[in-house]
Predict the structure.
Amino acid sequence: MRAHRFVKTYTLLMRERAAIYCRLSWSPDGSVEKVDRQEEDCRTTAGRLGWTVSEQHVYKDNSASAWKRNRKRPGWDAMLAAIQAGEVDKIVVYHGDRLVRQPKDLEQLLSLADQKRVQLASVSGVRDLSSADDRFILRIEVAQACKASDDTSRRVKRGWAARATKGLPVGGGRRPFGFEADHVTRRESEAEVLADAASRMLAGQTIGGVVEWLNKVSTTSTGGRWTARALQHLMLAPRIAGLIEHDGRLHEAVWEPIISVEDWEEIKSLYATRAQAYPYPGRARRYLLAGIAECHQCQHGMSTKPAGGRNRKSARIYVCRRCMSLGRNAQHLDEYVTSHVLRVLNQPDFVAELTADTDPRLGQEIVTLERRRDQARRQLEDLADHPDIDPALIAKSLTSFSRRIEDLRSQQVASTKARVLARAAGIDRAGWDALPVDVRAQIVRALFRVVVLPTSQRGPGFDPSAVRVTRRPLDR
């Protein structure tokens, strides 16, 4: 008899087990206070109905939209899994629109309710999801909520577009590096760091080297350490050049640019070029000719290793790790190539050639053409269904813009290399030694091809005939 009562009581309790679901679409400071208030009201409602709620069946989605179709809601997914597993058969929410705002989500819940006879309760009342009348009312409420969200989204988008046209920032998010929390006022101390980082990149310093330098002089806007990804995100954002991008268009911003549009375009080109040549940005460089000096036999870039023997703690040699056919004292080879570099950088004819090949207007011309192309695309899309407009003509017009832009970008690559060399033109030995090693390596790579040949010389010293240093043309 007692066993029968226990089973009956346990079965009743199991039937009364409920889940609480709380959601807040957006919390600017990451606060969970409002979600906790929802939970408190839901617990009061569950207690009034005699439903039991365990801690493991309280599901929260903070800063998660139920209207966006592609937004993930971990709490929602976990709750559905608990219903499917038979852990709960009741749901308590503060309001129905906290649970679903898309008809597809409601249908997913109703499909599950067909199997598990789920009840839904909120502060305003209880719905039986197996009842046809309650389903009808819920579908109407969700459709209204979805329309309200669509209307709000349309108004917000229109407002963002108006702000972008006026040169004001679009959207929220964390404080961008170089600016105050209002996203408009420049924080000059950070802006100077950002401008210096851009100058280092344009001078030829590697991404890894710039990141290493940034971590010595600053932190990110959130106080964290710099990474190659964080630097790339910052450098490719139009904000740094005093521009705003919205809906595929660029607008002039109300703040002063940190770097010029021309420099921004060159940095974009630099990232695109390096992404093709070097998928991994690599560590900060330590040795001048690592990866630049080539083995004569397999044309593979040479790397360094300790010399071994008594000098293993100090001396290093460049070696080819592919064929292991030869090695060279790193210090001697660096000195030899450096003497060639300084000689060329101080030739008047070379400096004149650099000036003739550098066109600082390329970046601005690319930006102008991109704007014209986007404007033409929008205009032609409006005329696409016009009976007198030939679709082939539309495609040809857009292709001509793209072809011209690609042509300018190819010129920009050569111009970027010339600007790297122009920054070092006329430099003396003290100035050369003061440059970061990866900037020096970039200059060497732009000027020369260095091939290491076999030598019969043994013992100390350096054999110049065992190295072939060949000038590269500027247009390569």
